[in-house]
Amino acid sequence: MSAEEPAAFSASRIAEAARVIRGARHLIAFTGAGISVESGIPPFRGPGGLWNTYDPRMLELDSFLAHPEKAWPVIKEIFYDHFGKAKPNDAHLALARLEKQRAAPEGRGRLRCLITQNIDNLHYLAGSRAIVEFHGNSRLLLCLSCGKRVEASPDLLATLPPRCACGGLYKPDFIFFGEGIPPEAHRRSEREAGQSDAILVVGSTGEVYPAALVPRWAKDAGATIIEVNPGESEFTASITDIHIPLKAAEAFRLLEKELAS
Ligand code: NAD
């Protein structure tokens, strides 16, 4: 930490980050579970993390397939009953506004692409549309027999495990442990990071691979790494250029104010 007061320290980092964002030609963002903590969704790891309460094995593909009747009630409780009530916070909303803001000279969105590890749909609800869902999303269910995707409606989740009209088992359309990254999401993330000259990395430990490669691809392309995380991550000491040590919603309120000044 700096010898400066924490508030002055953060303010100078915010001003520095705003300068980089204003000057960026291809700004992207990469978000993790931390951005949704202020919306009431806990991360997986650390104090208050979901894995302190629930058994992560219910998200292992083999164990889900062997006992869907045991896994589904827990999945419904966490990802539909609990996550389903969450609303976007000021950080999600600020990122959506950055996408809509026209940046001179081409008049394209200031934020070109938002790559998220999250499956909670909050970026979409906030209004972001240039989203890559690296780990899929919980909004849709995938039939493991016929491949059909449907909205995860309360009707479908009334009887567990939910089944398709073809008789096949539905699985949430996010990746479980033991599954690969959707190829198009992987390709698009690599392409966007390779073109970027600045990246906002928000609320990620940097421990989940291959997602954690995204900021590293951006670094290799010469991008400035702006990290928002009240703690330190695997990125902080290795690739981060500007660390804003604040919670995401507060950091983005300050950043928007600075960008508007
Ligand atoms: P993580 O759970 O490993 O780490 C969360 C990070 O967020 C930590 O570095 C922590 O310091 C930081 N953080 C905590 N509060 C914050 C705040 N208010 N503002 C900003 N940062 C804050 O998360 P991860 O690295 O994203 O990996 C877990 C994986 O699990 C993700 O890839 C994701 O797929 C999944 N996940 C998703 C959700 C969701 O969709 N909201 C929730 C839990 C886990």
Task: Characterize this entry briefly.
The chain has helices at residues 6-23, 61-66, 68-82, 90-100, 122-126, 183-195, 213-220, 248-260, and strands at residues 27-31, 102-103, 108-109, 111-116, 131-133, 136-143, 149-151, 170-174, 198-202, 224-228, 242-244.
Q: Keywords, please?
A:
261 residues, alpha/beta, Rossmann fold, SIR2/SIRT2 'Small Domain', 6-stranded parallel β-sheet, 3-stranded antiparallel β-sheet, 8 helices, binds nicotinamide-adenine-dinucleotide
Our Rg estimate from Cα atoms comes to 19 Å
Distance between the termini: 27 Å
CATH H-level homologous superfamily name of the largest domain: TPP-binding domain
Q: Briefly note the structural class of the backbone.
A: alpha/beta
CATH class of the largest domain: Alpha Beta
Q: Low-confidence runs (pLDDT<50, min 5 residues)?
A: none
- Biggest sheet: strands, sense, closure? 6 strands, parallel
Could you please say which CATH topology of the largest domain applies here? Rossmann fold
Q: Identify the overall geometry.
A: elongated
Please name the CATH architecture of the largest domain.
Answer: 3-Layer(aba) Sandwich
* Helix run count: 8
Helix content: 25-40%
